[in-house]
Amino acid sequence: MLPQIELSADVDVVALSPLLRGMAMTVSYADSQGGIGLTASGAMNRKFVHWAAVHFDWPGYTSEDLYSVNKVLNEADMPPLLVVRDMLKHLRLLRRRKGVLVPTQRGQDFLARPQAFFDLIATDYLYAYIHYGQTQEAVRNRMRWWHVFLNLINMKANTGCSLNDLVNELYPSESYPEPVEMTVEAWEERSAFRYDVIRPLCWLGLLHEEREGLTIWQDGTYHKTPLWTACLKLDANMQSEFILH
């Protein structure tokens, strides 16, 4: 059974969640600017993408980060924006009208009460959303392991944990020495856990990665945020088997 996500405390979800913040800011921009312009191919125009890069304050994807790689930014150059747009479309918070994206009535309701939408957004995004490069089959197969992932992180992240701390617990048969010594299977498992489990939790705002003083090639330390305890009820002393194989 998938762990239930249910907000049970008065927390500022927009401040804590990059995804909710990005969604709310996008709807607000569309509302105040008469819509978000679209290119001939249907992508958000560069004017909005630049605005989003500057204002979203998305960890790892600030305007400085993004412009260090690209001289100009298109929608595809800002990975979090692709997720924001997908979720806004899926939940029917924006609609296309005469070449621009404008808020729906539901979008206006979301803008007025983002907390009321958190449970739905978090559940859909964490358990069902198909990120770029993933398959529907992989997302379905992962559903049976989410209770293992979340309970393990719930225990390990109390005082902070690394990616290696978690994958070594889940896959003890594949030890994780120096990256150059990893097997292909070990590298794939580690990468999949980072991008399919840890990154969505960070983008949703349930985990925070402490990266001060690290290079882009180094892994940070993950900590639970107040949003984690506000919406997940898990057994911090769970002693069940975490090994996946």
Task: Give me a quick take on this structure.
α2 (18-32) crosses α6. This protein has helices at 13-16, 18-32, 46-55, 63-67, 79-90, 105-112, 114-127, 136-142, 146-156, 163-170, 184-204, 226-231, and strands at residues 36-37, 94-97, 100-103, 207-210, 221-224. The protein has 245 residues and is mainly alpha-helical.
Strand content: 5-15%
Number of domains: 2
| Element pattern in H and E | HHEHHHEEHHHHHHEEH
**Strands in their spatial order, largest beta sheet:** 1-3-2
Number of helices: 12
Question: Which shape, going by the Cα principal axes?
Answer: globular
What CATH architecture of the largest domain do you see? Orthogonal Bundle
State the distance separating the first and last CA atoms: 20 Å
Question: Segments where pLDDT lies below 50 for 5+ residues?
Answer: none
Q: What is the CATH topology classification name of the largest domain? A: Arc Repressor Mutant, subunit A
Tell me the total number of β-strands: 5
Highest-level CATH class of the largest domain: Mainly Alpha
